[in-house]
Amino acid sequence: MTQSPNQRIDLSRLPxxxxxxxxxxxxxGALMLAASAAVNGLSYLYHVAMGPxxxxxxxxxxxxxxxxxxxxxVPMSVLQGxxxxxxxxxxxxxxxxxxxxxxxxxxxxxxxxxxVVAIALVMLRSSIASILHLPSDSPVLxxxxxxxxxxxxxxxxxxxxxxxxxxxLGGAMVLATLVRCVSGLVLVVLxxxxxxALAGSxxxxxxxxxxxxxxxxxxxxxxxxxxxxxxxxxxxxxxxLLGVLxxxxxxxxxxxxxKHFFTAEEAGQYAAAATIGxxxxxxxxxxxxxxxxxxxxxxxxxxxxxxxxxLAVGALLLLCAPLALVFLLAPAxxxxxxxxxxxxxxxxxxxxxxxxxxxxALLNLLLWYYLAVGNRRFSLVLLAGALAQAGGFxxxxxxxxxxxxxxxxxxxxILVLSELVCGGLKGMPTAKAALxxxxxxxxxx
Length: 445
What we know:
Elements: H1 14-72, H2 74-92, H3 99-102, H4 104-123, H5 125-131, H6 138-149, H7 153-162, H8 166-189, H9 193-215, H10 226-233, H11 238-261, H12 264-277, H13 279-282, H14 285-300, H15 306-329, H16 332-338, H17 347-372, H18 377-395, H19 400-421, H20 431-444
Helix pairs in contact: 1-6, 1-8, 1-9, 1-11, 1-12, 2-7, 4-6, 5-6, 6-9, 7-9, 8-9, 11-17, 11-18, 11-19, 12-17, 14-15, 14-17, 15-17, 17-19, 18-19
């Protein structure tokens, strides 16, 4: 078939088009990396400010409640990825869908889950307060309220991401974090204590919903196939949910255990060391953002992915090693600079805790790597580790140092077990990758 002059492709414009597209992708990536860095930095400064303002006892309450909120909100965070994927697919296929037709299929399970959890928090508030050694059940009521306000904000963020409104998404992330910091600080200064510090997260969630309406109004005016949208959006990524939930239990369960087993003062001291130590977890967080699409692309083509993983691991260790050495050799320095002399007793926890957080940063990287290559076994390894850590807390809680030892021991155990089961760092291919390689070799021959 011959082409008319109007149908011929002007190849002379191809290099410029490719350069323009590449520049756009790089710019979008840099924008999101900058927004993520700003959010992480502001969140960390928020903790730094809350330590002296609340004091060790109240700060321990705040970090415990925040840890519980992080764990119970995992399904909404995972669902954000599903909304992003399906919104992007529908937009790419020009099958548009509006809020009324797309969200009901997603809102329903979220609201059911959220209602059950919120009602359980309210009904069991006295028991939860007793278990966590809270001064009253009021903080649990605030936790339930903040959780309820946070139900739908991940869906709005997912829609912004799916529509590739990256400037709007980055701006919403930063502005919501600012709302959290300002509102929380004001409430704490006014005397609301740990409840005020936690309430800032609720104000941030409301601001995300409001910003979604103004930053991406086209999303709320789209029309599309209602049945198709509901069928796509209802597919819940259970393997992602399991892995992320288990990892969050591993990362935040120790603060809750310390709050249960020890005094408010000891819990606050431990929370300070845990917050500083988790800087090693969040510092290399953007590496996962860059690793995931690269590994997904290679795996889809049947190519070897272990080299990408090793490169990411090397970058992670390069970022974490200097800070980990400071935490290990001079723990009093970051504690005193961040929280002041009142928190210096926590220096005995920071060294070993920093080693554990480096391992967990590696495990977080491995989680997204294995999800990218379709390996679901790693999520089961994390789940087994979460159960083992909970058992360790129940058996060994003579002092907070034992809790740190359980955290470090569990992290090392999970890393060893994951290599035995999955073998990612050793370059052992998953069954799916091996099959793809065999098929590719057969087709070439």
